[in-house]
Specification:
- The protein is α/β, with parallel strands linked by helices and 191 residues long.
- The protein is built from five helices and ten strands, in the order H-E-E-H-E-H-E-E-E-E-H-E-H-E-E.
- The strands form three sheets. The protein has a six-stranded mixed sheet with strand order 4-3-7-8-9-10, sandwiched between helices. A two-stranded antiparallel ribbon has the order 1-2.
- The protein starts with a helix and ends with a strand.
- The mean pLDDT is 93.
Length: 191
């Protein structure tokens, strides 16, 4: 998606350890017009999949997931990373390792918000090693829902996440696919 690639080129920062910082439009400050366009693109890519619910992980996946839900007219559920006084039982859970934060988090979804007859679209901000999506797949499996696809805003194609997902046979779409972050420069797959 050219609009997203242009935004990454203009505002993204490559950090050591193959990390791409996009906090000025995606995962700290959010550009709502861009998120709306991303939601429209995910709708186009998954329009024939019979999606009934979108599933994501807090917090960076929420903005693109909500805009996709708005575009597709379906509810959005996000897996919470931290327990609260209101989220204590009747949960689907999984453990997810965050490469950028170097910690494991237990993620949880209340069983009331993901139903056995759902066809779920998983949306996330990044796909690198696939840990967040793997956790959401575990939750979907426990809930006995069908995962119709996975949509990611930015994919680091040089890492193993896509390969892992393709081996499961799941329909995967990334709006920007990064081939390399070498020499502090973003190179996209089609470049």
């Amino acid at each position: 998606m050219k609009l997203l690639e242009d935004m990454i080129r203009k505002n993204g920062t490559v950090l050591p350890g193959e990390v791409l910082k996009v906090d000025n439009f995606l995962n700290h400050q959010v550009d709502p017009k861009l998120m709306y366009e991303l939601g429209g693109e995910f709708k186009r890519l998954f329009k024939d999949e019979g999606i009934t619910r979108i599933l994501t992980v807090e917090s960076s996946g929420i903005a693109p997931a909500v805009m996709t839900g708005l575009q597709m007219d379906v509810p959005v559920v996000f897996a919470r990373k931290h327990k609260s006084l209101t989220l204590i039982d009747n949960l689907y859970t999984a453990t997810v390792y965050s490469y950028t934060k170097q910690v494991s988090n237990k993620i949880s979804v209340d069983k009331r918000f993901i139903l056995p007859n759902d066809r779920v679209l998983i949306i996330d901000d990044f796909l690198a090693n696939g840990q967040a999506v793997q956790g959401l797949l575990e939750i979907a499996s426990a809930a006995k829902v069908e995962v119709a696809g996975v949509g990611v805003v930015i994919e680091k194609s040089f890492q193993k996440g896509r390969k892992m997902l393709e081996e499961t046979g799941i329909h995967v779409e990334a709006l920007a696919r990064i081939a390399s972050l070498a020499n502090n420069e973003v190179t996209f797959v089609q470049d």
